[in-house]
Amino acid sequence: MDTLAPFLVLVQLAGALVRLPETAAVGSGGSRSCSFPAVYNFGDSNSDTGGASAALSEVTAPNGETFFGHPSGRSCDGRLIIDFIAETLKLPYLNPYLDSLGMNFRHGANFATGGSSIRPGGYSPFHLGIQIAQFLQFKARTTALYIQFQQKNQELINRLPRPREFSEALYTFDIGQNDLAYGFQHMTEKRVRASVPDILMQFSQAVHQLYEEGARFFWIHNTGPLGCLPYSVIYDPSKPTNLDESGCVAPQNEMAREFNKQLKDTVLRLRKQLPAAVFTYVDVYSAKYALVSEAKHLGFVDPTSFCCGSFYGYHINCGKRKVVNGTLYGSPCNDPSRHVSWDGIHYTEAANRWIANRILNGSYYDPPVPIEGACRARK
């Protein structure tokens, strides 16, 4: 791989000039790798690096034990997919916007919070509309601070994003799972299905808001196989008749696939409506379902088991322990790396790494380019 001096590229997409992020290298095929200066992430606990822990309820040990050696705000024993994205882009791990202590936002910020949904009224108050509002405030305030202190306080400036880089950053989304999960708990399957168009309309509105603020590069995960989460399997009232060949709750996965079909259609419309933007649609569902289906062949234990907490007989969240009738519930397993599920809802670092390795090379993308080429992905 030949290294080039960084430079800016202007390309024309649908008649509009788009400023691409700095380009750092040329591969054997001659295509340049994008060098995104920052990532701004929106989502739920699948990509929350500490927002919910700072604002709602602290994420305690043994979360974080595998990689960080201590709780890191993530509902996981280690890294999330968003962390592997940051590593691949050679950027620092994203700091949560909601954590005010010692944060550095020079290369982006994470607005995701555990329990969040696209629409209001779910598990968390920090739905996507709130996350977008937080970003707009973040962008306005950090820009004002940068202009005010760029010649006066270098220490502060080193922790702030550069105003011009908001249009060069990558905007990532991993959200929608809780809209379906909350719906299945509070509505009929028919009503959940009927809610999907409105959910995605609000998602589309959020993207339009970011676009109006200068965002041009969008990385959108579809939702995973909700019915394969051990929590879903345990609490499904109609099992085993509802389980598919991989042991997942079939109606929930069918709904996730329908959501993803409509999400992909939404992305196609956004490409036409916002011709100066570049969209990458990432089929996380297929990667996660492949992992669950092949778990035992890949060296994992039964994917319906999990490492931390308990839903069997007594509901005890990861990080809590309780003795019931002489039995201790809630102790973590000895080897999280052999589990797909960390706590019955969230994936282990080992699972996240496996999924990230599959999606980051472009195998599950539309268009099929690796993340390093996401600034030039064609429609």
TrEMBL record:
Gene3D superfamilies: SGNH hydrolase. CDD domains: SGNH_plant_lipase_like. It holds the Pfam family Lipase_GDSL. The keyword ATP-binding does not apply. Keywords: Glycoprotein, Hydrolase, Signal. SUPFAM superfamilies: SGNH hydrolase. Belongs to the 'GDSL' lipolytic enzyme family. This is GDSL esterase/lipase At3g27950.
